[in-house]
Design goal:
The complex is a heterodimer. Helices cover about 40% and strands about 5% of the residues of chain A. Chain A contains 14 helices and 8 strands. Chain B contains 5 helices and no strands. The chains are: A alpha/beta, B mainly alpha. Chain B: It is found in: Cytoplasm, Cytoskeleton, Flagellum axoneme; Cytoplasm, Cytoskeleton, Flagellum basal body.
Amino acid sequence: MSRSPNPPEAADPRQLRRIIAEDPHWLLSTVPSLSNLCLQSIVNRFEERPIWEDLSPVHKDFVQERLSTSMPLHVTANLIHDGVYWKRCCEKWGGIRDLTHYGNSWKRMFFEKHMENMIELFIPDVTEPKTFVEMVPLCKDYIKRLNISQLLPPVTEPQKEEEEYGSELVIENEDGPSMDHFDFNIMLDKLTNLEEFHVVYRVKQCGLNFQCKMFEMTHRDCESLAKAVKSCKTLKILRLNLSHMEDTKCRLLVKYLLDHPSLRELDLSHNLIGDKGARAIGKLLNRSSLETLNLCDNNIGGPGAKALAHALGGQAIGKALLNNNTLLLLHLGANEVTWPSAIALSKVLVQRSTLKSLNLSCNNLGVDGGKALEEAMSNNSSLTECDIRLTEVEEQSASFVNQVVWTNQSLEQRRHARESKTKKTSTAVY
Amino acid sequence: MPKKAKKGGAGKAGGKTEEERLVFLQQRAQAEEEMNRKKEEVLTLFLKDKLQKEESNTAVNLLKLNEGWRSVLRQTRASELRKDLTVLSQTFERQLDGLDGVVKTLERDLQAAERQSAQVRRVHLQHLEQLWAQQHQQLEVEQQQWESVLQLLTSRFSSDREQMLSNAKQKQDDLKDTCFAVEQKHKTVMLEIHKLYSDSIAAYHSAHHERLQTLGLEDAERLDQMKRKNQKAVEVGSEEDSLPFLHGMKQGLKDDVRNVKRLQEMVINLRVQSTSSRTQNVSAERELTEARDQMSSQTQVLRHYLRANQTVARKQLTDVTMQSDQAVKKLQAVIARGQKVLRVAEMCRKMESEQRTISSLIPAEEQRPEETAAEAEEPGKEPGKEPGKGRM
């Protein structure tokens, strides 16, 4: 190979090879450095021999960008820290969501999505639960929120009408599938960092195969879910929507949720909870530390709302210790609350001092309910949000309530300003 | 025809008295007629009664017949209707059952549709809630940004405003100070000017008197003009406020008086000198022009000479170049010839060597043509050598 007699003045003469000689193996690109070649071989054989801890940060970045995204998780989960590799794994699925929703961590996003996908595509009696048992120890440190938006029911095979096997068919029908939907018991107690859990019992994109059963949770499901939730000690937010939850299931769930150590927010909106369920939830209010309760779009009527109000307010002074002291938000919109419950709730408002937000919209409170609320609000100074739209109260009551709410809001802001000032002064002193 | 018979009878028995017979016949006829009439009347009455009875009977019978017919008809119709009833009732029952089934299916469909619509509504509500929460978050972010930017801007503007206010205040103070200082200066300068003015006027009066004495009345006009000029100068000087200029003016005014005398003497001397120098200049100019003309003529002559020499030299050069070209060409031809000769010589040598080799094989017979060839080669060699030597 011949080179120019006087190489030009450049820092790296290897980058400026101009003469293309008669060598058939000559390439225009420069020869890669030895460290890059080593790293490439590390990348190619990462599965058999994962070398990661010994690499310097620059080399780690190089490996991260080139490592195959289909590497088995038991190798990579605990080894590779948060960064470009997990970003590439997430991009494989396409449609990157908002990263701040996942706490700015690609690794967390990947694991949560992976687990959600596995659960959403789990078909009872077809998919092996072993995969979950293997996955859980790998990802339990990274999953903080599980948002499951579909759960597949078991596959029903068409029954053959043959008289010879008539008796056998009967026996098969009695057994039935072992579980109606995914059983969360096998994994929820092992996910030690889980704080939020949303679940919806429905099937997405069923098209013409619509069956009503695909959109309901059954009794067994409720029981297994309740047990699973009870076993997960770090759960803070539980959302169970759109699952056709009636009173019996609600009571069953509440039975297991009593005295849960860390539950802060309970969202059972868009179900079919009636008065008995509301009574059960009232009991729950007294025996746990709930801050937010969302029961919108259920069938709670007068007695149910009264039960909730009693749970919030209480009657005599002797029972004051049993009262709930932590509820901040109560959402009862789109139920069937009428004016007696409004009166009961207004009694609550007079006594309570921690309820910050109350939503009674889309109930038929009527004029009497509106007047009761008006009287109650005149004595209340802590409610900063009160939503009584579409409740058929009078304009006057609504405007009065709104005025009180605005004054409460300004009071709240002033309190905040004072608190921040006192905090500043106290820190300045120190 | 009883009458005819009677008449015939009467006619037959008549032989009696025809009149009695006639009357008898007539009476008998009349009585017969009356009897007939009565019989007829009775008959008609009887017949009428009978007719009436018959009519009533027929009416009654008709009624009975109708009743009987109707009852029979009713019975048959009743039986037919019962049959129809049973058939119809069965069909209606069947239809009712069908409709019941339809109603049930519709109920079920309605329930399913209601459930689906409720489901859709709930899902829609949930989505709306999520979207609303997202929008709320985004709004909060935007509001925070806006508030921070607003705070930044307000702080910047307030600081700018304070700065500008302080600058303005400072400048105002500075202005006041400078005004005060300028006013002070103005007063002092005005006093000085008044002094200078009075001094200068006194000086001028003295100068004026001196001038009048020295130069006489003829120059009075000129002096007046000078005075006026000086007064104007003084006025101009009084309008200006610079002290050094006024001092200079005052001294200059005093000096002017002396200078005027000196200058006048100097003027006369200079005039004399100027005339003499003019004559000198003129003569010098004449000499210089003459010298210049001489020089120019000489240069022209020299140029002519140069040009002639140049042309001659050019001609010589061209001749030389041409000759050299010709020589070069000749030499090149000679060289070519020489090279050809050399080549020929080489070839001859080669051929000689070949011939020698061949001749060594075949001696005697071809020696002579070899010698002739060698002789032919030798003269060829010689002219080849000479031009080579000539070239060298």
